[in-house]
Amino acid sequence: MRTEGSCSSTCLGLASYYIPEGSNLTYINYLFNQQSSEIQKYSPNLKNIDVILTNTRINVPFTCECLNGVFLGHTFSYTIIHGDTYTSIANVVYSNLTTEDWVTRVNSYPPTDIPVNAKINVTVNCSCGVRQVSKKYGLFLTYPLRKGENLSGIAAENGVPVDVLQKYNPGSNFSDGHGLVFVPARG
């Protein structure tokens, strides 16, 4: 029996990664299976790959693909270290690019018994755009909202008109301080 999914495209996606304390580019390369030079290409604020500022954002490229014929996303592989929980992986390690609930759903280990050195899946949602909104943008940031951010600030920071940002994210509360929005970008 064949069923129709709700997606079929693949595109380049970007993760707006908020760099937590203690991170370095080698670690970020590992998390996203990406080279520093590729990250630097999409992160205009990253002038020197040997110096990254914590508590800032960089854009990390990844393949945005149709998963299970149902939604656009990418699944990264992560190896558990001592002290990891699904909450810490979602909120700290992957800087809210996913949720604890999502990490729990895509893995077979119970949240209270994740073995050290186990490989788990970390799925991040993404977007390839909506042609009805605009054909100008072919690249989208998966952007985790943070406390203190708002629609006009995110639009200005990313050079996107407010109305376009709203059209790509109907129903999103940009001042909520949590959740994901998709920010149009140019490659």
From TrEMBL:
Keyword match Cell membrane: yes
Intracellular or extracellular location(s): Cell membrane
Bilayer disposition of the protein: Single-pass membrane protein
MF (Gene Ontology): transmembrane receptor protein kinase activity
Pfam short name (any one): LysM_RLK
Key words of the record: Cell membrane, Disulfide bond, Kinase, Membrane, Receptor, Signal, Transferase, Transmembrane, Transmembrane helix
One GO process term, biological-process aspect: innate immune response
Occurrences of domain LysM (ranges): 141-187
Entry GO CC: plasma membrane
InterPro entries listed in its UniProt record: CERK1/LYK3-like, LysM, LysM2_CERK1_LYK3_4_5, LysM_RLK3/10
PANTHER family: CHITIN ELICITOR RECEPTOR KINASE 1, CHITIN ELICITOR RECEPTOR KINASE 1-RELATED
Protein name from the UniProt record: Receptor-like protein kinase
Species of origin: Trifolium pratense (Red clover)
Classification of source organism: Eukaryota, Viridiplantae, Streptophyta, Embryophyta, Tracheophyta
